[in-house]
Amino acid sequence: MAKKAAKKSKPAKKANAAFMKPMQISDTLAAVIGGNPMPRTEVTKKLWAYIKKNNLQDPKNKRNIKADDKLKAVFGGKAVVNMFEMTKLVGKHLK
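User: That's the sequence. What structure does it adopt?
Assistant: Structure tokens below.
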């Protein structure tokens, strides 16, 4: 019986360097998630942790976020923002 040749494993997919690059955070956003430079992915994780901790998701439509005073400053004064609009607004606070 002949053994099958071992399949060559593909190299691990590398993360997109642009997402992993630490970004400078504005003072307004730093009041919510902290001021140390961090990648966009980490910014998003910390924002969602803040939203869930403070129960800011709309219970009827989980896509909407009800902003408290700190988040209103980040969201340009808007009281309610959907999750897709949130990433666009937060991007303005990253350099």
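The chain has one domain: 19-91.
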